[in-house]
Amino acid sequence: MRIGEIAALVGLTTRAIRHYHHVGLLPEPERRPNGYRAYSVRDAVLLARVRRLTELGLGLQEVRDALADDAGRELTEILEELDADLARQEAAVRERRRRLGALLAEPPGATGPVSPALAALLAQAPGTDSPSAAKDREYLTLLDTTGTADRKMLALLETMIADPGIVELYERLDALADAPTDDPRIVPLAADLVAAVPEELFAALPRDGVVVTGFKEALLAEYSPAQAEVVGRVMDAFVERGRG
Fold it and tell me: Where is each HTH merR-type domain found (predicted)?
């Protein structure tokens, strides 16, 4: 094979292959009488291995070390390893497409695929078009995706979110959208929101903190100033109770 042919076969550029020759990563094959390099199947396997390792984030020195470990191995063994790598990539792509399909199948405004525990929790929630309730659903989805909220915590939230009175609390928070930060409704609403949280949930909070550094500021930025005062007080209560 010529350099252009092997480059097309393994999905690399001829420039990249020449660079690998230059840095000693790939020995230059012998040239034919016509002056062209003649690449073998083993060269193609080696270049496929280089491409795979660099795609995994390895530097060229790390790739060189990995290739040194391949020295003396049978071609069939290396091919089987590459085939297994491709099978894993195919499985990963199928899983990503499955998740993408689930997203495409969801109605507009949905938060995306969630765990069975969170799906069961959201199914208990009373219907409401409250913007504050929508933000809470997004927040729960984030906690679910990152693994911050475990199954036990989500189960404890069921009694809270299934309470029809929670809608009134959301609506009171919505009503503060254009209010000043000294609005007299802020303090009692924050207290009522904290009181709505099951005591068992506070006991289940991690002792190393419940608010990631920087997250509180990012979350509060999603609310109007008066609403942020309420949410900030509730988050502070979570932090204090989580340390208790």
Answer: 1-69
